[in-house]
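Provenance and format

Records in this collection were gathered into a single text stream. Each protein contributes a sequence line and a token line. The two records reproduced below are adjacent in the stream.
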Amino acid sequence: MRVRKPELVEHGQEVRIRALVEWEGRREYLWYAVERRYGEYLTPEHLDAFVVGLLMPAMMAGEDLHVDGPVSEKLHWNLRQYYMRILRSVNPKLSAVRVLAAELYDGRQRPRPTGVGAGFSGGIDSFCVLADHFLDDVPQAYRITHLLFNNVGSHGDGGCTMFRNRAERLRPCAEELGLPFICIDSNLDEFYRLGFQESHSVRNISAALVLQKLLGKCLYASAFRYEDCFVGRTKFAGHTDPVAIHLLSTERMECILSGAQYSRVEKTARITKIPQSYRYLDVCIDPRRGNVNCGVCWKCARTLLTLELLGKTSLYEAVFPLEKYRLARRRCVARVLSKNSPLTREVALLARERSCRFPWDIKALVTIRRASAYVRSLLLWRHVLP
């Protein structure tokens, strides 16, 4: 895989930074786009963003990454010495490759910017980062100055349309907080054959790295608490974030993980003290929903059950169809409690702590769902094992 020098191109009301990529016998541009007013902060002088964004596709293709331009010395070293080893521990299908940069820079040429960026999707994790680094008493150097909203694969089949719609729903929240809201569009997802949950860290950090003239720190929201994190085979890149995120830093932009000190239940309780979350909380994964969460998908169900156990459900009637949830509650609760994951175990523990006793029909549904999952796993192993 070869990445040519980036260039800036005006595209409608946006400015794109793009680089020609040659790989697997194809030639295509990888680009990132921001509104014109942020175009001056794009960094065509180096290729850090492109290296981070394309590292996993190169490893998946088994191709060395040739870079026709400068790359951060710090980032290059960390990728080569540490980060790729973590990625291969998570997914053995990834090959060890070389990152061959035409030049390395050490960051002495320019001072580090003072901007502090944080991804903001309107979810539990990103609202918690907002609580810690903006609404609480926080040192100025760690106080959020800009919110980022990226289109790098998290919007599923909805693609650009869902990205635009979600951005317009969240923009008023940023305005209420008095924070600039920077949308970063990209075609990065077209280069991936890995699911978003397996690769979200490099995708989102790569988008932030295009703004190294503006951001000296990038706060990345943790999906899991420290106790549930590890380096090993998993479908969820978030398990490795405490040991991996800082390795994507450069001399000019420090990447910091935020939120791993909390469980998801603790985060949910924490954001119930943020009035903006009552109107802008967005956790839904159903692409067919309108301007509010659907209330019954597995993420909505988990969030609403947690809010119910915390006694805070009524605060969120503006963003959840609570009557729809109540009608489907038996199925929703069973769906949550039947899953064996750290995040759902937290909810079950909260229910026990609150002395919540579920009726027999929900317990029966949980048992049936767990049994079905066990049978499916046995059938799967019949095909895998000799």
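Adjacent record:
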Amino acid sequence: MLTPDHMKKVVDQYLAAINAGDMQSATNIYADNAAVEDPVGTEPKRGDDILQFYTAAFANGAKVELTGPVRISAKAAAFPFRAEINQPENKILIVDVIDIFEFDDAGNVVKMTAHFGPSNITVRDA
């Protein structure tokens, strides 16, 4: 059954999996028919492309952390977080993001949208 507690736990599991470098676990939250639009405005990834996207995006490692509370409404969870993604040449890409997960009745994520733009991205030395 889909509950606010379940949706919050899925967000926590997702972030923990990314921090652990376990992209398979990070993508296990998705339903078979899920779509990932990251960032919003790009072609949604589906099926095996979702795991490939996460694997490529976090290939060099990343740290993600909530920067505010998870907001729950109906069948959705929105959450602000900061991603610090390791880049070549000792650089770290910092992205301030709001992700929105839309859930099905079984508690799986059927749609994820990542909301950020150029003004939310900075780079610093490692």
